[in-house]
Write a structure and sequence with these properties.
Mean pLDDT: 89
CATH topology: 434 Repressor (Amino-terminal Domain)
Largest sheet: 2 strands, antiparallel
Strand order of the largest sheet: 1-2
Helix content: 40-55%
CATH superfamily: lambda repressor-like DNA-binding domains
Low-confidence stretches: none
Strand content: 5-15%
Number of strands: 2
CATH class: Mainly Alpha
Shape: globular
Distance between the termini: 24 Å
Number of domains: 1
């Protein structure tokens, strides 16, 4: 499902909210999830916010999402919203 005004930034924030909800449901700290997923705590914190840096939406790698799924014992479907953003950023290197 796509929405003409649903942005990639909103999509990324929704993913972060789903990650946070899964963590809270498991009663885990951010540090514990990061350690279990083999990622830096700072990286994990950015994932929960859905923001890479101010003004830039996060675009996590598939390997990172799969690692989080394993650490949180959830499926990828649990983390990805069913509503799709109207525009998806280019995945080509160096493209903006």
């Amino acid at each position: 499902m796509s929405s003409s005004n649903y942005t990639w930034d909103e999509f990324a924030v929704d993913i972060g909210a789903r990650i946070k909800a899964a963590r809270l449901a498991k009663g885990m700290s951010q540090e514990k999830v990061a350690r279990a997923a083999n990622i830096a705590t700072f990286t994990y914190q950015k994932l929960e916010k859905g923001v890479a840096r101010p003004g830039a939406a996060l675009n996590p790698r598939l390997t990172t999402l799969v690692s989080l799924c394993r650490a949180l014992d959830v499926t990828i479907d649990d983390l990805i919203p069913t509503k799709w953003p109207a525009e998806i950023p280019s995945v080509e290197r160096g493209a903006r």
